[in-house]
Amino acid sequence: MSEMANSSGVASQSARQQSPTAKRIWFAVRALVSVLLLVAVVRQVGDEALMASLRRGMANWGWLLAALVIPRAVGMVISTVRWFVLLRAQETSATIWDAVRALFVGSFLNYFLPTSIGGDGYRIWHISNAASCRYSVVLATILVERGTGLLAMCVLAIAGGLWRPEWLTTVPAIGACVAGCAVLLVVGTAMLVFIKPPSERMGDGPLGVIRKWRKLAGAMSDFRDRPSVLWIAFAYSLLLQLQIVFQYWAFARCLGIDITFDRFLIVVPINTIATLVPISFNGIGVREWATIWVCTPLGVSRADAALVAVLFIAGGLIHAGIGAMLLNRRKTWMPAESGVQSDKP
Asked: H-helix or E-strand containing 42?
């Protein structure tokens, strides 16, 4: 998780001890990696080829604009409803507008923090203050949200592999991705279903780690007693993953790429897994290379594949802009004092 919250939902000891200079250096290193990866993409693909692909897309500017805006708007609605269902299941007093504001601001922070989960830390802080509840309770909803999203992504990848079994042997990247998703599906389901709080007899552990884990696991175990909520969250996650797949496919069609929808059932999971590796600035540069790596064997040119990845990033900038405006006006709708309940006994 981000520096805002660790597994207990409170600032971690290591984050407190990390100097501002070290943070800035790590920030700069990731930003430099992203720049170098993007430069390598341009050199490998060629700027003329990229501009030719962009011109094809701009020729269909109406459809391209729709592909940039509409899927993301639908995705924001799905994300809001899914998170609100989980927050209600934990009996928080958060409103639907609290969830909307937190998601928009989180979207902005995800674009301008070194990792794609930086916004989750803000969401934890925001709801904990707005609804006056414990960090661990809100963190549990986000972990279930992310967990069901990961499981839904794995299900789509496996479905894509089963639908096109010839890809598993002819394209090694696809075979490895489907196998990895199958393992993640089993492990993730087991963790979501069987996670239990440690016994009180184990004490608090060094730096209170066991105590913090006990509170978090206890909050998450509440969902195990509500299987219908987990299934609802998984259904929304599946819809959200399909929305992402649809947006990739829509960008491809706008660029004149003759590629079927089912191929992106594989492309999207590979991109998602690749961007989880914390070596770049919010996955920028990694996503482009991952798209090229998996799309080129499927008959897509490198320029077209790279541009599809760039357009996907651009599609989220509108929500990021709205989040920036909400963050700027935060004092008008956030409580003057923190209402967070302590996670300490």
From this structure: helix 20-45
Residue reference for tokens 């504001």: 101
Write out the two tokens for 135.
């960090």
Residue type (1 letter), 262:
D
Q: What is the DSSP letter of 134?
A: -
Task: Examine residue 94 and state whether it is found in any structural domain, yes or no.
Answer: yes
The three-point CA angle 177-311-59 to 5° equals: 125
DSSP character at residue 257:
-
Residue 157 lies in a domain: yes
| pLDDT band at residue 280 using 50, 70 and 90 as cut-offs | confident
CA distance to 5, 84, 340, per residue, from 2 (Å): 6, 22, 18
The 8-class DSSP code of residue 116 comes to T
- Using the Cα atoms of residue 254, residue 258, residue 261 and residue 264 in order, give the sign of their dihedral: negative
Tell me which residue range forms the domain holding 194: 21-332
Contact 11, 216 (CB under 8 A): no
Instruction: Judge whether residue 170 has pLDDT over 90.
Output: no
- The answer to the question of residue 295 being in a domain is yes
SS3 breakdown of the chain: % helix, strand, coil, rounded to 5?
75, 0, 25
**What amino acid occupies position 116?**
S
Residue 10 backbone phi and psi in degrees, to 5? -120, 160
- pLDDT-wise least confident of 13-27, 118-132, 169-183, 262-276: 13-27
Residue 255 falls within a domain, yes or no? Answer: yes
- Give the whole-angstrom CA distance, residue 127 versus residue 256: 43
Question: What is the number of domains present in the chain?
Answer: 1
